[in-house]
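The methods section describes the discrete structure representation at length, but only in general terms. Each protein is reduced to its one-letter sequence and a matching series of backbone shape codes. I believe one specimen quoted in the main text would settle the matter. An entry of this sort, consisting of the sequence and the corresponding backbone structure tokens, reads as follows.
***
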Amino acid sequence: MKIAKIHITLKEGVLDPQGKAVQGSLHSLGFPSVEDVRVGKYIEIKLAEEDNAEKQVEDMCNKLLANPVVENYSYTIEEVVTQ
């Protein structure tokens, strides 16, 4: 079994209202040194042993998980050690 760990973030220049809300809340809680916050997504997907896991993850990201127009994504694929 393999596990894909996917990080999705907004592209530079894309407004992040959720990040701004978090930044404002952090300031209200006494963290005035926070200059900027960007909020993203983290997704883990378990995959059966297959040779084309990387291609599948690319397709998943481009077709559903990320919006390539406004988001960037990166991922790693790791072997899961079962005991």
Remarks:
- The two ends are 12 Å apart (CA to CA).
- Residues 2-79 form a domain with the Mth169; Chain: A , fold (CATH 3.30.1280.10).
- The helical segments are 17-28, 53-65.
